[in-house]
Amino acid sequence: LLCIFFFSRVLECQGLPIVNGQCDPYATVTLAGPSRQSEAKKTKVKKKTNNPHFDEVFYFEVTRPSSYNKKSHFDIEDVDEVDKMEIRVDLWNASNLKFGDEFLGELRLPLKFLRQSSSYEAWYFLQPRDNGNKSLKPDDLGSLRLNVVYTEDHVFSSDYYSPLRDLLLKSADVEPVSASAAHILGEVCREKQEAAIPLVRLFLHYGKIVPFISAIANAEVKRTQDPNTIFRGNSLTSKCIDETMKLAGMHYLQVTLKPIIDEICQVHKPCEIDPVKLKDGENLENNRENLRQYVDRIFTVITKSGVSCPTVMCDIFFSLRESAAKRFQGDLDVRYTAVSSFIFLRFFAPAILSPNLFQLTPHHPDPQTSRTLTLISKTIQTLGSLSKSKSANFKESYMATFYDYFNEQKYADAVKNFLDLISSSGRRDHKSIEQPILLKEGFMIKRAQGRKRFGMKNFKKRWFRLTNHEFTYQKSKGDHPLCSIPIENILAVERLEEESFKMKNMFQVIQPDRRVLYIQANNCVEAKDWIDILTKVSQCNKKRLTVYHPSAYLNGHWLCCKATADNTPGCTPCTGGLPANIQLDIDGDRETERIYSLFNLYMPKLEKMQEACGSKSVYDGPEEEEYSTFIIDDPKETYKTLKLIIEGVGTLEQEHAQYKRDKFKKTKYGSQEHPIGDKSFQTYIRQQSEISAHSI
User: Fold this and answer.
1) Model confidence pLDDT, tens digit, residues 42-73
2) pLDDT at site 317
3) Is 422 in a helix, a strand, or coil?
4) How confident is the model at residue 620, as a pLDDT?
5) Is there a contact between 506 and 496 (Cβ–Cβ < 8 Å)?
6) Which of 544, 573, 575, 529 is nearest to 307 (CA)?
7) Which helix (H) or strand (E) holds 615?
């Protein structure tokens, strides 16, 4: 009996896709042939990695067919049979979803190829699955039209990108901003989204996203004629803010919406309010009440979530509010609609409508839940719009009827208070025409700060008032302030341990020169609300403390650490209260490389834009039609920037060409740098062959 043994060692994978926020890969190995029953052998599942290291060996045995008798030999037909076999390796993502594990890719290795060598090791690109089911006709499964874009970037070390990166990062300071490199990228790209994604990531990485978006938003507002259309188009500003909210606000969405979205997906309460679509046994009034409760709960968690809104989003909303208020001073609502058009229309409403796209659910909801979420999203979007005739916003009469539940002033007030909070800033702008925004007020008890050397440090009831500019207290509401603390002087806001004064619900507002204001709130909920909102408005202060004393300084020592000097640094790390900003895993060089690739791709448009600048400089008449698509406010400045962009792109293009020449000469097909299936390598070899033949 002649037997042939094969063994396959599955070593490792790199760069597997992350599905629904996780990757738990495993591999199956199969030896298959025309007359051989496939047997699949499986590796262990590697948890939470898209670069798994398996290093597992699988053995396969091939014998002659059972129809042969013992005396017969293993002839040439058997060899042909072996040559028709193949080893197939499939990669899967272990999933808890009811739809089963997700297929990640496969590779197929014919034994005919492997028999040329006793041992073979190489890297391979994973390929899409080959169904292999011959019984299905092409028409049986329908058809799908796709537009797929494949992008491959090689990223150099950081110094290669310095000229282009510096040119991009100073975009916010260029006057006018339309002459900046970042704005020009938005002008030449076919889709604004193409430019927005790498620009936002680059500016976030270097901490310059707020001034950049403020500059392009202010320019767009100046070009807007009607306040009702502000930020309604798919402009570079809108796309950049959308992308920033997706990156910075993902955690914010998780803590705000996920609990109730999970409940809606699991409980499946009937919420259909269209009489035509009611199912048998459903009651219209019960459904309306179910939907009303869901809308009420989601509306409440959103409007109460202002203190959790990421700082970078708040700073952007502040600049939008300022620009809109200056441009349309006669419209008092535009300062709200400029912000609500993003936070409600482009952030919360889409997340409710399609929670799977915002990582709130692992997959698309079932049809009934999807319908419920659609109705909730429509209502929340309308509540957030603050339009004067809200019922008229609905084409469907049943939605207009349902919205009557929410035609109360308390909903509009809640939206405005929420928008005030997320669009406030502790930074004073002396050019601002906006009045200070009132964020919170109410009676509390405060301990005297001891400003007078021999004054008594007793406790008194005072009316406290917080705006985005200052924190004040007075004897009664409407009185002149007895004390005013500018927001920039709030260095920390922390709880105070009860042992200090034998009083509950106390917190401390720490100021420069070791001054501390001790305050007692009416209850624990009020104390938390005050701490959160004070922390929110002061978290951007550059001199914020990192440590503090959780107890008071009494009788010549700190009660917490027993230190005797009143100027002893804090003994406990500050809680921070709220995330001051976002931490993103962004590679600035990779994003600059992506921007270079876009500039290189749209080089003809850059050159056309140069022509348009020249035409505008010498001819001040009507624009030629081919140039009318470009926004060019200052032809000379725009031309200068275009020249620098083209020079920088040309230099990087030469570096890439040299890198490819060097790399392809030194690397081997089947290595990690060029896995089998790497079409770029095959294309390059073919091109080099054609060039050599042409030279000869």
Assistant:
1) 888 888 888 888 888 877 766 554 444 444 44
2) 93
3) helix
4) 54
5) yes
6) 529
7) helix 603-618
| Cα distance between residue 181 and residue 407, in whole Å | 47
- In the numeric block, the tokens 């009507």 are attached to 622
**How many whole angstroms separate alpha carbon 340 and alpha carbon 351?**
15
Average pLDDT, the chain: 82
- State the Cα–Cα distance between residues 468 and 529, nearest whole angstrom: 15
The answer to whether 292 and 191 have CB atoms below 8 angstroms apart is: no
Sequence-ordered list of residues with C-beta below 8 angstroms from that of 375, at least 6 positions apart, any chain:
271, 273, 291, 399, 402
Q: Name which of 148, 136, 334, 92 is nearest 230 in CA terms.
A: 334
Cis-peptide into 211, omega within 30 deg: no
What does DSSP assign to residue 591?
H
Q: What's the CA gap between 583 and 248, in Å, rounded?
A: 8
Query: For residues 307 and 64, what is the distance between their CA atoms, to the nearest angstrom?
Result: 73
Closest CA to 517 of 470, 561, 477: 470
Give the full edge-to-edge strand order of the sheet including 483-486: 483-486, 470-474, 459-467, 438-447, 516-520, 506-510, 492-495
Please check whether residue 548 is in contact with residue 510, taking contact to mean a CB–CB distance below 8 angstroms: yes
Contact 44/28 with Cβ under 8 angstroms? no
Q: What angle do CA 91, 94, 99 make, to 5 degrees?
A: 105
Give Rg (Cα) of the chain. 33
Cα(267)–Cα(360) distance, integer angstroms: 16
Q: Where are the domains of the chain?
A: 2-154, 157-223+589-695, 236-423, 438-539+541-573
| pLDDT for res 239 | 94
Distance CA 256, CA 297 (A): 11
Q: What residues contact residue 212 under an 8 Å CB cut-off, 6+ apart?
A: 171, 172, 182, 199, 203, 240
Task: Name the packing angle between helices 209-223 and 181-188 (round to 10°).
Answer: 60
- The DSSP bridge partners found for residue 88 are 30, 108
Give the CATH number of domain 438-539+541-573; options: 2.40.50.870, 2.30.29.30, 3.10.290.10, 3.30.300.30: 2.30.29.30
Q: Which run of H or E residues covers position 40?
A: strand 36-42
Q: In which band, very low, low, confident or very high, does the pLDDT at 110 lie, cut at 50, 70 and 90?
A: confident
What is the bridge-based pairing of β-strands 516-520 and 557-558? unpaired
Judge residue 418's burial from the number of C-beta atoms within 10 Å of its C-beta, 0-12 exposed, 13-18 middle, 19 or more buried.
buried
- Which of helix, strand or coil describes residue 93? strand
Query: CATH topology of 236-423 equal to that of 438-539+541-573?
Result: no
CA separation for the pair 240, 259 (Å, rounded)? 28
Cβ neighbours of residue 109 closer than 8 Å, sequence gap 6 or more: 86, 87, 88, 89
Element (H, E) at 196: helix 192-205
State the CATH architecture for 2-154: Sandwich (2.60)
Least-confidence region, from 381-390, 403-412, 461-470: 381-390
Q: Which residues pair with 29 in a beta bridge?
A: 41, 89
Answer whether 184's CB lies under 8 Å from 609's CB.
Answer: yes
* Res 196: pLDDT: 94
Q: Residues, the chain, total?
A: 696
- Asked if residue 65 has a cis previous peptide bond (ω within 30° of 0), the answer is no
Beta bridge partners of 518: 447, 508
Percent of the chain with pLDDT over 90: 35
Q: What is the CATH code of the structural domain delimited by 236-423?
A: 1.10.506.10
What percent of the chain clears pLDDT 70, i.e. is strictly above it?
79
What crossing angle do the helices spanning 409-422 and 367-385 adopt, rounded to 10°?
A: 80
